[in-house]
Amino acid sequence: ARAQAMEVDQSPSVEYEDIGGLDEELREVREAVEDPLVNPDQFEHVGVEPPSGVLLHGPPGTGKTMMAKAVANETDATFIKMAGSELVQKFIGEGSRLVRDLFDLAEQEEPAILFIDEIDAVAAERTDSKTSGDAEVQRTMMQLLNEMDGFDERGDIRIIAATNRFDMLDSAILRPGRFDRLIEVPEPDQAARERILDIHTRGMNLAEAVDYAALARDTEGFSGAELESLTTEAGMFAIRDGRETVTMADFEDALEKIQREEENGTPGYA
Ligand code: ATP
């Protein structure tokens, strides 16, 4: 079970150009993660330590994982992903053990980008209820912070965590030397939605120019992941109709379908 919990990708295929919007956020991620890997001397010369860990926070499906993968790709680092929820285990010591394994693996694979999704699963503010489960989760988090403290000697390993629940985090993990670079990843705005639609229709066989601006106006509140589903759904309408090209009407039908499903609260694949 241990090996399955980790996703290892020696050469993820996501590129910076695949990410819509998030220019400023990506610049910050690159500065904190890429620069120390590619140009460690720079930090030594100036006499500052690079940020220890980067924490990406924001709503689901907005590109946090994508950014981590893209930096791994562009720096030729191995991408290692673990979900925080996987670190919450039944047996005492099992979570800490997984954390150790994770860092050992990163060391073997370096240069490596360690991506811990849903960090809130192990790093939520402690509540009053002092159940034994809570104590075990706390130990797992302490192990994670310990491993991060030993970072200086580890060389080419950078750590990125992500959460949709920033408000729940224990402030202990945000101290200097820990996740000390916070980057908010927002929902896409109009321009970003246009760009994301453009990106996800690149490989599609379009019958006509798609009015990205109009679609973006009608998709306020959509995440990047939801915009991607919209393009897939539009393609499905063309297929159902026996066509090989996708029209603007297919996008409109797809949007209508998604909005109807949202109203009914029943996402489905009719
Ligand atoms: P979660 O918090 O749910 O883990 P996330 O923020 O890590 O979500 P991703 O896994 O990066 O989200 O995004 C899911 C998919 O949605 C991506 O594989 C991509 O296809 C699409 N997507 C999300 N954001 C963007 C974006 N900014 N540009 C292009 N595609 C995007």
Automatic annotation (TrEMBL):
Gene Ontology molecular function terms on file: ATP binding; ATP hydrolysis activity
Entry GO terms, CC: cytoplasm; proteasome-activating nucleotidase complex
Entry keyword annotation includes Nucleotide-binding: yes
Residues covered by the AAA+ ATPase domain: 50-189
Cell compartment(s), UniProt: Cytoplasm
Domain of life: Archaea
Binding positions for ATP per the UniProt entry: G61, T62, G63, K64, T65, M66, H200
BP GO terms, sorted: proteasomal protein catabolic process; protein unfolding
Keywords: ATP-binding, Chaperone, Coiled coil, Cytoplasm, Nucleotide-binding, Proteasome
Free-text note regarding domains: Consists of three main regions, an N-terminal coiled-coil domain that may assist in substrate recognition, an interdomain involved in PAN hexamerization, and a C-terminal ATPase domain of the AAA type.
Record-given protein name: Proteasome-activating nucleotidase
Taxon lineage: Archaea, Methanobacteriati, Methanobacteriota, Stenosarchaea group, Halobacteria
Gene behind the chain: pan
